[in-house]
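forwarding from the other thread:

> can someone predict this with flavin-adenine dinucleotide?

sure thing
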Amino acid sequence: MNIQENVPLAPHTTLRIGGPARYYATALSEEELRDAALWARSRSLPVFVLGGGSNLVISDDGFPGLVLHVRLRGIEATQDGRVVAAAGEDWDALVSRCVAAGLAGIECLSGIPGSVGGTPVQNVGAYGQEVSATIRSVRAMDIATGEFRNLAASECGFSYRTSIFNSSERGRHVVSSVTYELDPGGAPRLDYKELKDRFEGRPAPSLAEVREAVLTVRAGKSMLLASDDPNSRSAGSFFKNPIVREPLWAALEKTTGVPAPRYAVSPGLVKVPAAWLIDRAGFQRGERRGPVGISSRHTLALVNFGGNATAAQLMKLAVEIQARVMKRFGIELEMEPVRVGFGE
Ligand SMILES: Cc1cc2nc3c(=O)[nH]c(=O)nc-3n(C[C@H](O)[C@H](O)[C@H](O)COP(=O)(O)OP(=O)(O)OC[C@H]3O[C@@H](n4cnc5c(N)ncnc54)[C@H](O)[C@@H]3O)c2cc1C
């Protein structure tokens, strides 16, 4: 195990913002994960687990403990659609491989950046699919003890952008592999209107066609990483879609004069698109505050447009958006990316 000191973290993130890790180690095996965790424990250092860095805002001061970069590789697939992938595998490469093998269940999650190990953490979702629907189990190490456990999906506490890994047991585990249960020969999911419209009047599209459509839609919103697209230097959606009570949703029409979009969640509760609220609060796509701003293609993405942008500048804009949405609509927008090194 090689422990490095004062390693810049910005290059390990899609936002390319933030300070250094006091200590940094890469783990290629479960044994290295355990060694690194026990090394940190022996020095009473906090540990932060880094995957693909696509859902992070690292503070300008960096992280004062050990950043453990999970790079375990390996994929095993069985005939019945079960796929076991190591946490350090690239998520979209796995989706591509499964689609090519005719395995349905994650095709709408094409193009989401990051690692396999990151997918259960916030239960990634897009275009009508959530990864939790296909997760059978998650293998994880308890950072405090170095012990590994297989957690059944039912133990992971999955809900919208939530699992035990980012809520009740946040910071406790390192995911080393995930077992997905996919549907061999299954049909693609076509729930999302923008996708459905693309196949209007055509016979049932294949998994590969749906994957291509998802990638095209995502590229149009700069929600695919592309080195030549400045709008993609982001952490994806910066705010979760708030879930509110019906009367609060109804009040939105009185304030704005138009009915707000809604997705039923449970009796009395609806999900409202955060992008709609931000738009209606008066923010414009492409609006900037120095080197940071709102993507010119997607209101929900905050972007580092270059020029030595800092985490402080980005967070100031995020707080400005939260405050204006709260003042106008009485709705709290919750930030989606994980903040690291902000003393939380
Ligand atoms: C352009 C763009 C588009 C995006 N679109 C979507 C989208 O459509 N839907 C969606 O849900 N998300 C989206 N995201 C967010 C992000 O890609 C996902 O949340 C992704 O799963 C994060 O994985 P990661 O490996 O990059 O995790 P990181 O960003 O490295 O880490 C995120 C969190 O997961 C934890 N973590 C990572 N790996 C492990 C592990 N092995 N064990 C334990 N904890 C771990 C970290 O400690 C941290 O708390 C998007 C991001 C970008 C930049």
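The chain has a mean pLDDT of 96. thats all i got for now
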